[in-house]
Inverse folding.
């Protein structure tokens, strides 16, 4: 089985698309990846070894397949603009995209209006959570985490929200994250209301957080597991 990719022809203007690819190390693209990746991407691939090379190649091919199908062009013809801190795609259809990976799992989010950001993380034991929060989280967020005794699951959930918001804005996580306050539904940046919404999706033993700035009414969420062949698409209405 192969993952189902969305085309902009099938979507509404107020929809966000999110792909969650599981076990991407089992994605077999060895036969044609050189026809899909750019010269620069092939150079990076060839500079890596073993598992890291395969993960880089597979993630880049999946990103190009997702964007190419959305834009209705061949994946090898997708062009990127790396002129700013946040890569963009040269397209009149896609206004923004973002990716996040954790191990052999990849999340890709595509927007046709406004900006977007995504973060994928799995719940795990993280040492020094309180010290990390003191550096990267707002005062109100630290209070919220302290109230649940810095529970690992709550810490990871809030972390994915923070990183998705920072990536959506095009900022660097370690330079600006403490200025974001996501402790209440009225998100703020430097004490000013942030024109952004965040959808948190619980997956397996983790979270995918999607941040977006446009007036989105629904998210097309597609999950594909390269190990089991599981393939599911959902239309998540936002209320």
């Amino acid at each position: 089985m192969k993952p189902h990719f969305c085309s902009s022809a099938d979507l509404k203007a107020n929809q966000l698309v999110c792909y969650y690819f599981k076990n991407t190390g089992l994605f077999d693209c060895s036969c044609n990846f050189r026809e899909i990746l750019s010269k620069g991407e092939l150079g990076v691939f060839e500079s890596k070894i073993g598992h890291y090379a395969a993960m880089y190649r597979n993630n880049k091919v999946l990103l190009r397949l997702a964007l190419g199908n959305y834009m209705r062009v061949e994946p090898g013809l997708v062009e990127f603009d790396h002129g700013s801190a946040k890569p963009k795609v040269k397209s009149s259809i896609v206004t923004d995209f973002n990716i996040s990976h954790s191990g052999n799992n990849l999340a890709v989010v595509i927007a046709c209006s406004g900006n977007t950001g995504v973060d994928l993380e799995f719940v795990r034991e993280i040492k020094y959570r309180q010290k990390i929060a003191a550096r990267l989280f707002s005062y109100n967020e630290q209070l919220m985490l302290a109230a649940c005794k810095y529970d690992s699951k709550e810490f990871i959930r809030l972390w994915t929200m923070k990183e998705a918001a920072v990536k959506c804005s095009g900022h660097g996580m370690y330079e600006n994250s403490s200025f974001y306050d996501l402790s209440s539904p009225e998100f703020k940046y430097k004490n000013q209301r942030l024109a952004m919404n965040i959808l948190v999706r619980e997956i397996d033993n983790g979270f995918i957080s999607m941040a977006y700035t446009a007036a989105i009414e629904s998210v097309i969420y597609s999950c594909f597991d390269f190990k089991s062949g599981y393939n599911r698409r959902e239309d998540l209405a936002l209320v």
